[in-house]
Amino acid sequence: MTNISLVAFVTAVFVSVMAAPAFPAEEPFDTAAASKHVGQGITLLHAKKYDAAVKEFEEAASINPDAESYYYLGYTYYLKGRSGDEESREKSRENFSKAYEIDPNFSPTRYKPAEPVPSKDLTLQGEPPEVQQQQAPLQTQPTVSPLR
Q1: For residues 80 and 53, what is the distance between their CA atoms, to the nearest angstrom?
Q2: Does the model's pTM come out above 0.90?
């Protein structure tokens, strides 16, 4: 009799576990909110409002401590530190280190500088136009040979 009640109990537990509603797994961090703060921070970076951008990136890092949040926070401190603010320079290094500690292969994809990127051919910059023209690669027209 005890074997039958044990089998009935195990069967009842199995059926109740199988009938329990399945809840979707929750993300441990609110990535959508963090991404929104990163986007707002990038907008503030373009406007050169570095203190406000720091607040947005710090909020993003507190919501979702990922490499992107720390990278942009470090970049903002880097821009602030260009004026000689040693504290900002140190914070920049700390946040870059955190970003690459989290993800050693991280590469930023969202921020594009407003200024054009300088030419890669630095040898011709600063030279008079005559020198630049002499050193510029020759563009030749293909020669057409008559058919024989």
Answers
A1: 11
A2: no
